[in-house]
Structures are given as structure tokens and as C-alpha cells.
């Protein structure tokens, strides 16, 4: 059976019946806790109609909040104290703080009936102030808790604008902060069926987070349906009192009780007065249940036997639909001791040590490590029902004594962990046969990425520089040099940064003044003064680095170092610098002159397609830029040396004609009516390629690899084509 249906069956439960103390003054015992309930009774809880005629459905028309609060009062211990205020447009005390004697418990539950009214607006701030006044009057040494129930955002009229609403929320958050700073823990229950009420949900969650930040305790319960209000109030009870609850679902159930239980309650319902259940203790004795409040026809059995350890048995009538629960008050606590609530910063990517302490409540209990397993959970929020966002991290036993067990684990936020804020919790499990799980209070943790300190460097003139560049004239004497470094950290977790000189600089330079800075998230400027420690004569040169080293290895500095160049010039340095400039200018002048000569003294190329008249035995060569060169006869001897031929043809024989990508037309009168040969040698990867020759205007082409013999007739013009696609080809013409 789901726990949220517990309320309709278990409205009023007696956990244990102890002789009550007379009077209404709370005990100052260390075991006594104070609970102050703030119950919303605004008009939105029941069906409503606005002044403009707009109708709305109530969030809790059946007043199930009253039943849930009454159950909480029933379950609290006899030594605890409870006070109640209800609030709508104004706050009102309906029962002063009183210890939970039998008489006061009934009086408190009767007072809760007054909260069935639903009218007015939602003055949460007034309720928090009322709780502050009541709680500050209590001088007990136990813990103080405020349980705040509401179904809407703070309001004071139908016509509140966003600015007014924000002001009311800020005021309430301020009072919540005041309560938490005084050690008062706040548990918030938000009844919010409408998912669009995210502002209200965030507001209630923020109150809980303020409490956790200051006290290490607190919680937030989001309730979508009023039928789940029971579960919300019970979650708070189990969170504060650290009790274990087990549901029984069989007609003949056996429950093994271990050595760490102080009190035992067996809670069950009956269908009618004749339908009773039976409880048998470990001594095989039948125990009759005790009715507490017949108003809801709910019953409970409780025992305070000295030795509860052993096997208990619960028998229920056949075909019974009654529900059974085992409630154990454990005599040990589990708490997360590191990180602490007031020291909760964890650097992203760095392993963090987690410690939990499992301690006995009294000096009689002996803790056996073999009975326990402690895990660490990571929660997304303060929601009491939140699940672990990662697999539980199992703790290892670090140290032990009869009254205390210390467990340790190491947690590193994984790379895909996208929460800037989470909550850590220690969870203790007993041996499997006991089936008990006990949780500590969640501790908030703020996760920060690796801090980075960004640096910029400026010289004496205030201009940004990329290095420490110091240059002195021969007649210049200077022993100190001032720079400005600007630091800004991406996180307040950034460690201080110190300045270190590389080893080769330490014998000549030092940092004068502070050499360590504490960066903040604000941009800050610091002076760095470099001072010489010995005489540096003209001609002296120094090269090295100045490092900016974080004291904490988790902090990163960008850039982490700057180069340093120191040069005290001599007269020879100045002469050499002058000569270098002279030689550069001289070489540039020569190259410029050659370029001008080459440009103005070469002949301009002939137009493409021009008929050439070339003397007998004069070779032609195609150049890589699409031109044909005319070479001298002596150059034919070097025709196979392409590099030399190309250079000579360029420098000494600028006479050339335009030659298309595949050849040129030519006419040689001296070879008329004579047999001659046209040959092309195309150098490409050491192989010869073919050449084609044909008369101009004809389609056919005579193709040969070595050469073509032709007889040139009067007026006949031939064209030479390089159809192989290779370049550059070499052409020459000679007698056959």
C-alpha cells in the first residue's frame, strides 16, 4: 500500500502512552524539541469568486490539511512542544506552545479544527513574525522547527501588481533568514496543483534552502494533490525524528527487531469493532492492542519492553483489508560531518572527502560495525522525497568506538554533472534482516568550476605589453623598472598568486615589494617593481621568464608566465645595428634596379598567331608561361639542360613571340621547296612525347614521336601543335 493513503486510515495514532506531565510549560530537557505549525487558511483553499466574477476551484476543499496536521501532533513525542498559528490576511495564534501531555495533545488537535475556515489573502510574512515571537520565548535546549503550510504566493489584495508581490516575497524571505540565523529550521509544504505556479514553488523552496544553509536542517515538500498532504507531514516527522517505518502486507507477518530500537509501535486499522488483530511478542505472548482515538476508528499497539530484540508476529483476520505498519524509534543517529553546512564549497573536478558519523543516542547502546552500512547520496534539491542523482557512494569505516562509527568516502563530481548546487546526505542501513534505512539531514553544496585568474600586463606608459622588455642606451643608468599587472578571478575560490623569477634571472634581478597577490572577482591592479641586484654594464643581456604561480594547484592562471628581455646597449651594438640597416637598404636597392632593368630592356611579345620568319637551323622553345624563345646557335648545345636554357633565354635572349597553349604558326622562306624536319622534345618525367604538324587550315595532322619531315612549298604555312598536354615542350627546326 502506498504511504500517501495512510491518512484516511490512520488519522489519529498513539505511538506510546507515557504518563504526561501536568501543566502547559515546556520541558527544558535536551530531548525536547519545539514544533511551531503555521497553517494557511486563505480563501483559495476552498472554492472562490473574485470581485470581477471570476470563479476558482479550491486547492483543499475537503480540509485534508487539518487531518494531516493532527496526525503529526499524534506522532510527536510526549516530551516535545507544539504551538499553532493560522494565517490568512492576518496571523492568529490558535494554541500557544505547550508540551505534549495527554490533555495538551487533545487540546492541540481540537484547535486545528479552527483551520478549516478559508477566507482572506496569504500573509506569510505575518505568520513568520508570529512564529519568531513565540519561539524566542522558549528557553529549551532542544531543536526548534517551523512547519509552514501554504497554497499560494504572498498577497494582500486582489489587485497586487508584480512589484507588490515581489516586495512581499522579499520581506518574507528576510524574516525566514532571521529565523534560520537563530538556529530555527524551516520545513515548507507547498500545495500547488497548478504547474504554472512556478514562482510560488520556487519561493517556498528558497525558504527551505535558506534554512538548510544556516542550520543544516530543513526541507521542501511539493504537494500536487491534497490527498498527498499526509505524506508531506509524515515525511517531515520522519526526517526530524529519524524513525524507521515498515509496511506489512501479509495476513501473518513476522518482523525481526534488531538491537537498536528504543520503542516499537504497530499501527493498524480495523473495519469494525469485532474485527481485531493479534500481536505476538518474541516471548510468544499475545498482546492486546490499545485504542487511542475512536473518532477515526484507528488503533495502535505500542510497547516499551526493555528487550525488544527478536521476532515479532502480527496476525490479522482472514479477508481483512486492514493496513499494518511497524514504527521503530531508533537509538542511534547518522549525521554528515564533512562538508559542514557552514563550509560547503566544493571545487568542480576535484575529489572531495566526505565523512559521516553514526553515533549512539545514549551511553547504553553498543554499536557493532558489522550491523551497518553507510552510503552517501547526492540530491538535486531539499525535497524530502528527492532521489539520488548518482549511484550511492559506499562509505568505508574510518574509525570506531562503542558509541561512534566514522565512515569516509571520496566524491568527484562527474564531467556531465550540470548542477551548480546540490545536497549531500549520509544514509545508514542496518543488516538486511532488519530492513531499516536512516537518513541524515541534507547538507547544501555549491559546486564551482576550476577557478581561473586572468592576467594582463602593462608597461610604465600604461600600454599593454606581451613581455617584460627592458632596453637601455649606453649612457643610460637605471636600476628599477615598474610594471602594472591586472588580475581578475572567475571565482572567489581562486587562491593567491605569487611571482617567481626563472633561475637564470635570480642572480641579477629581484622583485621589490609584495610578490604575492590575492585576486578577487573584481578587476584589481598591482604594481610590480623589478630591481637589479648587481651592476649590469653596457653590453649585458638577460633572457628569462617571470612566472605567476597559484598557491593552490586547483587554480589556473592565464597566462602563467611572461618573457623577460634585458639589454644594456654598448657603442658597438649601435654600430652593428647601423650596419645591418645599411646592408638591408643596399640589397633592396640592387634588387629594385634589376627589376627595373628587366622590365624596360626586354622586348614586348609579338601578337598571338603572327607568322614568323625564322632563319635556317634556328630552334624554337616553348616556355612555361606560354611563350616561345628564339635561341642562339651555341645554345643548342645546351638544349637538354632545361634550367640553364630557361635562364639564358630569359636574361640574354629576350626576343620571343607569343605561343599559345598548344603551338604556333610559322613560315620559313629559306627552307622553301626543301626537305626539313620539325622535331619536338617534351621533357616531362624523363620521357619524350609526340608532336603534331599540319598546314594551316587543314584538319588532319601528321603525328610523330621523334619528328616530322616536311617539304615547304611557296606560300605554305604550317602550324606546330602540342596535343599531348605536356609542358614545357622544346621545338627546333633543322635540315633533314
UniProtKB/TrEMBL annotation:
Domain VWFA intervals: 34-248
Pfam families assigned: VWA_2
Keyword line: Membrane, Transmembrane, Transmembrane helix
InterPro entries: VWF_A, vWFA_dom_sf
Highest taxon of the lineage: Bacteria
Residue stretches spanning the membrane: 575-600
CDD domains membership: vWFA
Entry protein name: VWA domain-containing protein
Species of the source: candidate division WOR-3 bacterium
Amino acid at each position: 500500500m502506498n504511504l500517501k493513503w495512510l491518512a484516511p486510515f490512520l488519522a489519529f495514532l498513539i505511538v506510546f502512552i507515557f504518563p504526561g506531565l501536568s501543566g502547559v510549560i515546556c520541558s527544558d530537557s535536551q530531548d525536547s524539541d519545539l514544533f511551531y505549525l503555521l497553517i494557511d487558511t486563505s480563501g483559495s483553499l476552498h472554492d472562490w469568486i473574485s470581485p470581477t466574477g471570476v470563479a476558482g476551484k479550491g486547492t483543499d476543499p475537503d480540509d485534508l490539511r487539518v487531518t494531516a496536521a493532527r496526525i503529526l501532533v499524534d506522532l510527536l513525542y510526549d516530551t516535545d512542544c507544539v504551538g499553532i498559528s493560522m494565517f490568512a490576511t492576518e496571523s492568529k495564534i490558535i494554541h500557544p506552545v505547550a508540551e505534549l501531555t495527554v490533555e495538551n495533545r487533545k487540546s492541540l488537535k481540537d484547535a486545528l479544527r479552527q483551520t478549516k475556515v478559508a477566507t482572506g489573502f496569504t500573509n506569510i510574512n505575518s505568520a513568520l513574525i508570529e512564529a519568531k515571537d513565540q519561539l524566542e520565548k522558549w528557553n529549551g535546549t532542544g531543536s526548534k522547527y517551523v512547519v509552514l503550510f501554504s497554497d499560494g504566493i504572498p498577497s494582500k489584495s486582489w489587485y497586487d501588481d508584480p512589484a507588490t508581490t515581489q516586495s512581499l516575497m522579499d520581506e518574507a524571505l528576510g524574516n525566514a533568514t532571521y529565523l534560520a540565523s537563530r538556529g530555527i529550521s524551516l520545513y515548507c509544504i507547498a500545495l500547488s496543483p497548478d504547474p504554472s505556479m512556478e514562482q510560488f514553488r520556487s519561493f517556498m523552496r528558497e525558504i527551505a534552502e535558506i534554512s538548510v544553509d544556516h542550520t543544516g536542517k530543513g526541507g521542501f515538500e511539493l504537494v500536487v494533490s491534497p490527498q498527498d498532504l499526509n505524506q508531506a507531514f509524515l515525511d517531515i516527522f520522519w526526517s526530524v525524528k529519524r524513525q524507521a517505518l515498515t509496511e506489512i502486507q501479509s495476513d501473518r507477518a513476522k518482523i525481526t527487531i534488531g538491537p537498536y530500537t528504543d520503542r516499537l509501535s504497530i499501527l493498524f486499522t480495523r473495519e469494525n469493532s469485532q474485527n481485531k488483530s493479534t500481536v505476538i511478542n518474541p516471548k510468544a505472548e499475545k498482546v492486546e492492542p490499545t485504542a487511542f482515538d475512536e473518532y477515526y476508528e484507528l488503533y495502535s499497539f505500542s510497547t516499551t519492553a526493555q528487550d525488544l530484540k527478536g521476532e515479532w508476529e502480527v496476525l490479522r483476520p482472514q479477508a481483512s483489508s486492514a493496513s499494518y505498519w511497524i514504527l521503530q524509534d531508533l537509538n542511534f543517529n547518522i549525521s554528515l560531518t564533512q562538508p559542514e553546512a557552514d563550509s560547503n564549497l566544493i571545487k568542480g573536478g576535484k575529489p572531495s572527502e566526505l565523512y559521516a558519523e553514526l553515533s549512539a543516542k545514549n551511553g547504553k547502546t553498543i554499536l557493532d560495525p558489522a550491523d551497518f552500512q553507510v552510503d552517501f547520496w547526492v540530491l538535486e534539491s531539499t525535497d524530502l522525497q528527492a532521489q539520488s542523482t548518482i549511484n550511492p557512494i559506499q562509505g568505508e569505516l574510518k574509525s570506531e568506538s562503542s558509541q561512534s562509527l566514522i565512515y569516509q568516502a571520496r566524491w568527484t563530481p562527474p564531467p556531465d554533472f550540470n548542477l551548480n548546487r546540490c545536497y549531500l546526505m549520509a544514509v545508514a542501513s542496518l543488516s538486511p534482516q532488519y530492513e531499516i534505512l536512516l537518513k541524515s539531514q541534507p547538507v547544501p553544496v555549491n559546486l564551482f568550476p576550476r577557478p581561473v585568474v586572468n592576467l594582463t600586463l602593462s608597461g610604465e606608459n600604461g600600454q599593454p605589453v606581451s613581455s617584460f622588455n627592458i632596453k637601455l642606451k649606453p649612457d643610460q643608468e637605471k636600476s628599477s623598472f615598474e610594471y602594472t599587472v591586472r588580475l581578475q578571478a572567475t571565482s572567489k575560490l581562486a587562491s593567491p598568486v605569487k611571482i617567481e623569477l626563472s633561475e637564470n634571472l635570480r642572480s641579477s634581478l629581484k622583485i621589490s615589494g609584495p610578490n604575492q597577490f590575492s585576486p578577487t572577482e573584481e578587476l584589481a591592479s598591482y604594481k610590480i617593481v623589478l630591481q637589479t641586484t648587481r651592476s649590469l654594464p653596457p653590453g649585458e643581456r638577460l633572457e628569462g621568464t617571470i612566472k605567476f604561480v597559484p598557491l593552490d594547484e586547483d587554480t589556473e592562471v592565464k597566462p602563467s608566465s611572461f618573457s623577460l628581455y634585458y639589454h644594456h646597449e654598448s657603442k658597438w651594438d649601435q654600430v652593428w645595428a647601423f650596419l645591418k640597416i645599411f646592408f638591408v637598404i643596399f640589397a633592396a636597392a640592387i634588387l629594385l634596379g634589376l627589376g627595373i632593368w628587366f622590365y624596360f630592356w626586354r622586348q614586348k611579345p609579338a601578337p598571338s598567331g603572327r607568322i614568323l620568319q625564322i632563319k635556317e637551323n634556328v630552334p624554337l622553345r616553348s616556355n612555361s608561361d606560354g611563350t616561345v624563345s628564339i635561341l642562339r646557335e651555341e645554345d643548342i648545345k645546351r638544349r637538354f639542360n632545361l634550367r640553364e636554357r630557361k635562364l639564358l633565354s630569359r636574361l640574354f635572349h629576350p626576343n620571343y613571340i607569343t605561343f599559345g597553349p598548344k603551338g604556333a604558326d610559322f613560315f620559313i622562306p629559306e627552307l622553301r621547296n626543301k626537305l626539313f624536319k620539325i622535331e619536338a622534345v617534351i621533357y616531362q618525367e624523363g620521357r619524350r612525347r609526340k608532336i603534331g604538324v599540319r598546314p594551316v587550315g587543314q584538319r588532319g595532322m601528321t603525328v610523330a614521336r621523334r619528328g616530322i619531315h616536311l617539304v615547304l612549298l611557296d606560300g605554305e604555312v604550317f602550324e606546330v601543335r602540342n596535343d599531348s598536354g605536356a609542358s614545357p615542350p622544346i621545338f627546333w627546326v633543322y635540315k633533314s
